[in-house]
Write a structure and sequence with these properties.
- It is globular, with a radius of gyration of 25 Å.
- A 4-stranded antiparallel sheet has the order 1-2-3-4, with helices on one face. A two-stranded antiparallel sheet has the order 5-6. It has a two-stranded antiparallel ribbon with strand order 7-8.
- The protein has 15 helices and 10 strands.
- The chain is α+β, with helices and mostly antiparallel strands.
- Helix 8 crosses helix 12 and helix 13 packs across helix 14.
- It folds into 3 domains: 70 residues; 109 residues; 193 residues, Intergrase catalytic core (hpI Integrase, Chain A, Orthogonal Bundle), CATH 1.10.443.10.
C-alpha cells in the first residue's frame, strides 16, 4: 500500500477529515472516520480520490463527500441516550418532592412538589439532549439561556431564584446518588437583578469580523455559518435558539407590495412560538440585500424546501444552539465586549439591540412589539427600560421648568 506524503497532510479541525497525497500520486485524497459495522468500510474509514492538485478545491470536495456520506447513512430513528437529563437528574428529584408533600395539609407550602414539577416542565426543553456530566455546558445553559428567557418574560428576581433553586436541589440529589460529581453554579442575585444591555451595531460588526478571521485561520466553515446566524438574529429580533435555527427553506419567502412591486421584503414563518401558533417577522433590508444572497450561495447544494436555512448539514439543532451560544460568548469576551455595566451580554442581547435600534429610529413601541412577537409592556420594561435613548425620551417628556434655590 502506498505511503502518505506527510508534508501534504492537512486535517480539518471540526470534522477531522484527512486531506493528503500519496508519495506516488500528484492529486489529493481524503479520509474520514465513519464507524465500524459498515460492510463497505471494514476499517471504519471512508477514503476517496479528490482528483485535484489544488488544496482549496480538495478541501471543498472533501467537505462535500463528508456531508453526503453522513446525510445518506445517518439513522434518523430515535437513539438511546447515554445521558437523559429528565430521566436521570430531574425525575428522581421531582418524584421525591411530590411524594414528600402529597396529602400534607398540616404543613406550609403543601403544594411545593407540584410547583417544582411545573418549574421543571418550563425548563425541560432547554436540557433535552444535553450531556449533564458536562459542567461547562450545564452552567452555560443555566447562566445564559435559562436566565435570559426568564428575564425576557420579566420574571422577578425572587421568581428566578426559585427556578435556580430547583436546579440546584436536583443536582444535589444526583450527586448524592453518584450520577454527577458537581453542583453547577447559578447566577448571583446581583447578576439576576442587573438589566440586560444591548450591543451597539459596531460591536456586533467586530464579532462578525472575528468570525471571518477564525474561518480563514482554522479552515472551519462553522464560524462562517455562525456569522450568518448572528446576522439573522440582528435582522428580525428573534429569540435565539430553536425558533431561528428551525427555519427551513420553505419558511423564507420574498414578498412585495402590490403598490410597489419593485420593493421586496423577506418574510419568515416561525411555527409554534411561545405566544402564538404562527409568527411572521420581516427581515431588515440590509439582510435581504447583502446577507441572504450570501447564505444562498454558500448553501447551493441545500435548496430543497425541507432543508434548514442555516447549518443545513447539522441535524442536532439542540447541540447547535449551545455551540453557537458558546462561540458568541467566547468571541465577545475576547473582544472585551461581554461584560458591560456590571452585567453580561450573551447571544440573547442581540434581541435587545434590535429593539433599541428600532426605537432610536422612531418606530412606535406597538410596532416593535408586533415585530418581536411580544407585548408593548415587555418592550418598555425589559428591552428599553434601561437604554439611554428611552431615558432621554422620558426626560424630554417630563416638565423641568421649575426654579431651584441655590
Amino acid at each position: 500500500m502506498p505511503k502518505i506524503n506527510k508534508d501534504s497532510l492537512k486535517i480539518l479541525p471540526r470534522t477531522k477529515i484527512w486531506i493528503y497525497k500519496f508519495e506516488n500520486k500528484n492529486t489529493y485524497f481524503c479520509r474520514f472516520y465513519v464507524g465500524l459495522g459498515h460492510k463497505n468500510y471494514k476499517s471504519g474509514k471512508f477514503e476517496k480520490t479528490l482528483k485535484t492538485k489544488n488544496i482549496n478545491d480538495a478541501i471543498t470536495k472533501a467537505n462535500e463527500f463528508y456531508k453526503e456520506w453522513f446525510r445518506e447513512h445517518t439513522d434518523t430513528k430515535q437513539q438511546v441516550r447515554e445521558h437523559d437529563f429528565d430521566l436521570d437528574i430531574a425525575q428522581p428529584y421531582i418524584n421525591y418532592k411530590v411524594r414528600k408533600y402529597k396529602n400534607r395539609t398540616d404543613i406550609k407550602n403543601a403544594d411545593q412538589g407540584v410547583r417544582d414539577k411545573s418549574k421543571w416542565q418550563y425548563m425541560k426543553p432547554m436540557f433535552d439532549e444535553v450531556d449533564y456530566t458536562d459542567l461547562e455546558l450545564v452552567e452555560d445553559i443555566i447562566n445564559n439561556d435559562l436566565l435570559s428567557q426568564l428575564k425576557d418574560e420579566d420574571k422577578s428576581g425572587n421568581t428566578i431564584n426559585k427556578y435556580m433553586s430547583v436546579l440546584t436541589q436536583m443536582f444535589k440529589r444526583a450527586k448524592d446518588r453518584g450520577k454527577v460529581s458537581f453542583i453547577p453554579d447559578t447566577p448571583t442575585q446581583q447578576v439576576i437583578n442587573t438589566p440586560r444591555y444591548p450591543y451597539e451595531n459596531q460591536e456586533l460588526n467586530f464579532i462578525n469580523e472575528r468570525c471571518r478571521e477564525l474561518n480563514i485561520k482554522e479552515i472551519d466553515d462553522f464560524h462562517l455559518h455562525s456569522k450568518d446566524y448572528f446576522n439573522l438574529l440582528r435582522s428580525a429580533g428573534f429569540r435565539p435558539g430553536n425558533e431561528p435555527l428551525s427555519l427551513r427553506r420553505k419558511d423564507c419567502e420574498i414578498i412585495s407590495s402590490p403598490n410597489n412591486p419593485d420593493k421586496e421584503y423577506l418574510k419568515y414563518t416561525i411555527w409554534g412560538t411561545k405566544t402564538k401558533p404562527i409568527h411572521n417577522p420581516i427581515a431588515n433590508s440590509w439582510f435581504l440585500e447583502h446577507i441572504y444572497p450570501e447564505i444562498n450561495e454558500r448553501h447551493k447544494e441545500y435548496q430543497n424546501d425541507s432543508d434548514y436555512l442555516l447549518f443545513p448539514h447539522i441535524k442536532n439543532r439542540r447541540t447547535l444552539q449551545h455551540k453557537t451560544g458558546k462561540l458568541f460568548a467566547r468571541i465577545s469576551k475576547d473582544l472585551k465586549l461581554f461584560y458591560h455595566k456590571g452585567g453580561t451580554r450573551p447571544l440573547y442581547a442581540i434581541r435587545h439591540t434590535y429593539a433599541t435600534e428600532l426605537y432610536k429610529k422612531g418606530t412606535p413601541v406597538e410596532d416593535i412589539a408586533e415585530l418581536m412577537n411580544t407585548s408593548s409592556r415587555m418592550i418598555l420594561s425589559v428591552y428599553l427600560g434601561h437604554t439611554d435613548q428611552s431615558l432621554i425620551n422620558l426626560a424630554e417628556r417630563v416638565p423641568n421648568k421649575f426654579k431651584l434655590v441655590k
